[in-house]
Amino acid sequence: MKIFLSGSIRGGRQMLPTYQFICGYLRSNGHEVLSWHVAHDGVEATESLMSESQIYERDMGFLRESECMIAEVSLASTGVGYEVCSAIKKGIPILCVHKPDANVSAMILGNTNCNVIVKDYSGNEDLEVILREFLASF
Ligand SMILES: O=c1[nH]c(=O)n([C@H]2C[C@H](O)[C@@H](COP(=O)(O)O)O2)cc1CO
Q1: Angstrom distance (rounded) from CA 73 to CA 15
Q2: Which of 5, 8, 10, 15 to mutate to test the pocket of ligand 1 (most atoms within 8 A of CB)?
Q3: What pLDDT, in 10s, does the model give residues 28-67?
Q4: How many CA atoms lie within 13 Å of 45's alpha carbon, on the beta-carbon side?
Q5: Which one of 22, 23, 33, 58 counts the least CB within 10 Å of its CB?
Q6: Which residues of the sequence carry a binding annotation for substrate (predicted)?
Q7: Annotation-wise, does 138 bind a ligand?
């Protein structure tokens, strides 16, 4: 599947190892992560070579192509919120994952849209089970 991975960039990079774990898991299971740059540790440097509108247009293009979204929502990121909302409008399945102690927005936790699944995970083992179940649902 073509998957959009959404994770914080300007909202903070503390969850980078988790984005890398998700991206690696998806790729090793044969999926294409269109927005793989979210899991790249030099993303700010490479993105600084692009204009803001180039970044926006590229990501919205990736979203148009994507069959589902996986969003790590532990950090408060305007971009992740915008992407989740855009995916809701597009009508694709969205899995939002977060650490149990994260201060996740009510716009995610309280979202009753039938395409949105929100799950918390403690570690990579938990997360892998959640990802496997989500992908098996297609
Ligand atoms: O440089 C960027 N490149 C990029 O692809 N994004 C997209 C992908 C991420 O899932 C999301 C992160 O948003 P934010 O930077 O507000 O945390 O927005 C966001 C930025 C910077 O806002």
Answers
A1: 10
A2: 10
A3: 999 999 999 999 999 999 999 999 999 999 999 999 999 9
A4: 3
A5: 58
A6: 4-10, 19, 83, 105-107
A7: no
- For 55, phi then psi, to 5°, come to -60, -45
Domain count, the chain: 1
Question: In this predicted structure, what is the pLDDT of residue 56?
Answer: 98
Whether ligand 1 lies within 6 angstroms of the CB of 10 is answered as yes
Ligand 1 nearest-atom number relative to CA 59: 5
Q: Whose CA is nearest to atom 20 of ligand 1?
A: 9
Angle, helices 52-65 vs 78-90, to 10°: value is: 40
CATH code at position 83: 3.40.50.450
- Residue 9 assigned as binding residue: yes
ipTM above 0.85, yes or no: yes
Say if residues 105 and 128 touch (Cβ distance below 8 Å): no
pLDDT in tens, 83-120: 999 999 999 999 999 999 999 999 999 999 999 999 99
Give the range of the structural domain holding residue 63, as residue numbers without chain letter.
2-136
pTM: 0.98
- Return d(Cα 82, Cα 9) in angstroms, integer: 13
